[in-house]
Design brief:
Belongs to the metallo-dependent hydrolases superfamily. DHOase family. Class I DHOase subfamily. By secondary structure, this protein is an alpha/beta fold. The protein is built from 12 helices and 19 strands. It binds N-carbamoyl-L-aspartate (NCD) and zinc ion (2 copies).
């Protein structure tokens, strides 16, 4: 019944001789020298690299509540165009995803759209208020099968509450992801605390606000015997602390965003709030440490922290603007620029940090799988030699707040397959009903 797709002359993980890959019934059926059968959809993979579909542990889709900036549908389109086959939608929506009603809605809506698996992230605390634990067990037991909990946007700063959350997570077998920001150290803060912020007269967000929570949570995870996941690591000190904790045998994982791998706080000189993000863009020494940490495995994976914001929430005074930037469609290209081009990782490494490790961290059995016969056909096809120029309005997201406006970036996702179905191809999204979305 389902259509077969044949990707011809492609190099798996960018390695070895080109092969043909036949996909059908949601699986990889055959790898080798294959002649297309009648009715088979053929994708010319010559010169291209085949990778497992990407998994984003950190996405903001804004539905419910801010559908003027992104919906599950438009965010799914952006994800498919970016090579993603699964994304985790953070809980800081309105209403907050702190109940099974909301988390199940997000899952169902994602499945209805059907172009990427949208996994709901449940809130750790009711209303993200940091006072009372949300009903994690009920959310985990829902249709949405919530396996990650986070108050992202806010830090679970109360150490006792964080300790309890980790204990519950342990018995439920779910992951707690922490937005590490000691709020007492970031009152009014809008930019990385350093010479640039001082010169520009912007209130500083010190590295210690992040690092003190990372250190504390590593110790809490040690005592609870549970894993803690650190969202959007942004400082050299965080890399050192995660390395230390792993060395102690503590169960800790960490992600880095594409923007923290590329950009630094020298961008703030224009006062353009497109560069405002939490945690803030840091210094070149931090960028370098994050790249090294990702290359050596201290930092486990790349996560976009895709954060759409409306024009009126960005085009205002720097201090008043909302933090966050788009990331789904540009992530692969930024990883190519910051990690592949300088020789820090190869395509096998891209598969690891954008697909395999995130799938493992959160326990998704059908994602980040090897490209082998019998495995689920969740795939991203990448043209390593392509380059493209980013413009906000051309992205599938409703919001336009990309920090890469007018930049020409290397590497482009040319096709994405979710369970054997082509969800994006040559910049066009294919919904379940084959109508076009976004663009
Ligand atoms: N990263 C951001 O600057 N903003 C995120 C929240 C968050 O990830 O902390 C958002 O929801 O807009
Ligand atoms: Zn955050
Ligand atoms: Zn976030």
């Amino acid at each position: 019944m389902s259509e077969k797709v044949l990707i011809t002359g492609v190099r798996l993980y960018g390695e070895g001789e080109p092969v043909d890959v036949l996909v059908g019934d949601g699986e990889i059926l055959e790898i080798g020298d294959i002649t297309a059968g009648e009715g088979t959809d053929v994708i010319d993979g010559a010169g291209q690299v085949l990778l497992p579909g990407f998994v984003d542990l950190h996405t903001h889709l804004r539905e419910p509540g801010r559908e003027d900036t992104e919906t599950i549908e438009t965010g799914s389109a952006a994800a498919a165009l970016g090579g993603y086959t699964a994304v985790f939608a953070m809980a800081n929506t309105s209403p907050v995803a702190d109940s099974v009603v909301v988390t199940d809605h997000v899952w169902r809506r994602g499945q209805d759209v059907g172009i990427v698996d949208v996994h709901p992230v449940g809130a750790v605390t009711v209303g993200l208020e940091g006072k009372q634990l949300a009903e994690m067990g009920t959310m985990a037991a829902g249709v949405g099968n919530v396996r990650m909990f986070s108050d992202d946007g806010k830090c679970v700063d109360d150490p006792l509450l964080m300790r309890r959350a980790l204990e519950y997570a342990s018995s439920l077998g779910v992951l707690i992801a922490q937005h590490a920001e000691e709020p007492r150290l970031t009152v009014g803060a809008v930019a990385h605390e350093g010479p640039n912020a001082a010169r520009l007269g912007l209130a500083g967000w010190p590295r210690a606000a992040e690092e003190s929570i990372v250190a504390r949570d590593a110790l809490l995870a040690r005592d609870a015997g549970t894993r803690v996941h650190i969202c959007h690591a942004s400082t050299a000190g965080t890399v050192e602390l995660v390395k230390w904790a792993k060395g102690q045998g503590i169960s800790i994982t960490a992600e880095v965003t594409p923007h923290h791998l590329l950009l630094d706080d020298s961008r703030l000189a224009t006062y353009d709030a497109v560069n405002k993000v939490n945690p803030p863009l840091r210094e070149t020494s931090d960028v370098e440490a994050l790249r090294q940490g990702l290359a050596d495995g201290t930092i486990d994976c790349v996560a976009t922290d895709h954060a759409p914001h409306a024009e009126q929430d960005k085009c205002c005074e720097f201090a008043a603007a909302r933090p966050g930037m788009l990331g789904l469609e540009t992530a692969l290209s930024i990883v190519v620029r910051t990690m592949v081009e300088p020789g820090l990782i190869d395509w096998r490494g891209v598969a690891k940090v954008m697909s395999e490790r995130p799938a493992e961290i959160v326990g998704l059995p059908d994602q980040g799988r090897p490209i082998e016969v019998g495995e689920p056909a969740n795939l991203a096809l990448v043209d390593p030699d392509a380059s493209w120029t980013v413009t906000g309005p051309a992205l599938a997201s409703i919001a336009n707040n990309t920090p890469y406006e007018a930049m020409t970036l290397p590497g482009r996702v040319t096709a994405t397959l979710l369970r054997g179905r082509v969800t994006a191809r040559d910049g066009v999204v294919r919904s379940k009903t084959d109508s076009e979305i976004g663009g």
